[in-house]
Amino acid sequence: MIRPIAAALAFLLAPVCVTAQEAKPPTEAASDILKERAEDVAAVLRGEKQAEAVFAPAFLAAVPATQLSAIGEQLAAQFGAFVGVERVEASSRYQGTIYLRFEKAIGSGNLALLPDEPNMVGGLLLQSFEPIDDNADKIAADLAALPGEVSVLFGPLADGAEPIMSINPDAQLALGSTFKLYVLSALARSIENGERNWNDVVELNVKSFPSGRLQSWPEGSPLTLQSLASLMISVSDNTATDQLIRVLGREAIEAEAAQIGHSDPAGLMPFLTTLELFALKADKDLGTRFAEGDEAEQRAVLDELRALTGWTTDNISGPTFVEPTMIDTLEWFANTGDIAKLMDTLARYEDQTVRDVMAINPSMPKAIRERWAYIGYKGGSEPGVLNLSWLLFDKNNAAHVLTMSWSNSEAGLDNSTFELLAQRIVALAE
C-alpha cells in the first residue's frame, strides 16, 4: 500500500556489481574501454545490439533484456529520442560517469565494468537528468498526457509569491504516506509548546503492516520520539507512524490540520492510522460503511475496529490489494495549497530537528541537491496513488515547495515517470 519513494530519485537500471579494484589514475586504455562500452550501452538503447553481448549475466539477472527495452522506451517517452553518448569521464580503470543525450535531456550516472575481459557492463545507474530547452508548457503537456488526475504546485512559499507552476490546484487528491507530515507537525508543535521532548522515550506498543521496520521489533522496545519521527519520514515506517498517533492522540493531529488551514478538513477526518486504513480496505463491507457514513458514523466504525484489533495486526489480514482500491473515498486527502501550508508550517518551526528529520531522505539526485541549501521530502503511494512533496530552501534561504499528486482509480501508476517529471519541474527554478 504505502511505500517510500526511492531514496535518491535515481533511475535504477542495476546495482554496480564489480570486483573491488585499487583506485588508480585512469590510463588511456582504460578510458578507451569505458568509451567503447558506453557506445555499446547506447547501441542497446537504440536496439542495434543485443543486451547479452554488452551486460554481464548478473546484471541481466536483475534487469532482463525485456526490461532494458522497456526502460529505453520510458526514457524516450519522457526525454525524447535517444541521441547518443555525450561523453564519458573515467574515475578509475573500469568505472566512470556516463552522459547520455536525449532530445530533451542529458542523463548521467555511474558506469562500471567487470575487470576481467571482455569487460562487460556490471552496473549502470543513471542518477540525474538535466533538461535541454525544457519549459513549463512542455512539462504541463507531459503531465496532461498521464492517465487519471494530476495536480502540481511549485514555487516560493513567501506571501503573495507567484507559483512557477500550478496545475489543478483545487483537486483534493489522495496523499498516501505524505499524510505523515501532519503527524510530524503535530509532534513538533507539542515539543515547541513544552509538552514533550524529542528525547522522550516511548515503549513500542503498536503494530502495523509494512512499509517499515518496527513491525518486526519486540513489544516494549524503547524508542525516542525523534527516532520514531525519523523512521516515519525517512523509510515511511507505518508502525512508527501509528505509535506517534497513539502518543499524540488522533484529536491533536486533526487539530493540527485545522490550525494549519486545510481547505477541506473532512478529507482528513477522522484522521486514520495506517492500520485502520489497511483494515478498512481489506474488509469491503466495513470499508464501504466507513466511506459512505458521515463523520459520526465513521468514528463509530473506528471504535468498533479498535475493539476488534486493539493496536495490533493480530486480527487483521495483511494487505493483498494490488489494484486501486477505494482510493477516492478511503485515503488521506489534500490539495496542493494544503500541502504548501503544511510545508510552510514545517519551515517555520524554530527547532531545526523537524527539518533534519525531513532531510534524511531528500529523494533528489546529487546534482539537484547541490543547487539548493536544503531539501526535505516525504512521498506516498499505493496502487493508483502517488504523491511527491518537497520543502526546499534556495541559497538565499528562501523556502519553496514542490508537491505533485497523481491518482488513477482504473490502473496502477508509473512512479518513475512522475519522479522524472519532478526533476524537470525543479529545474524551472534555475
TrEMBL record:
It holds the Pfam family Beta-lactamase2. GO terms for biological process: beta-lactam antibiotic catabolic process; response to antibiotic. It comes from Parerythrobacter jejuensis. The keyword Endoplasmic reticulum does not apply. This is Serine hydrolase. Coiled coil: none annotated. GO terms for molecular function: beta-lactamase activity. Keywords: Hydrolase, Signal. Residues 157-263 form the Beta-lactamase class A catalytic domain. The keyword Chaperone does not apply. Residues 1-20 form the signal peptide. It catalyses: a beta-lactam + H2O = a substituted beta-amino acid.
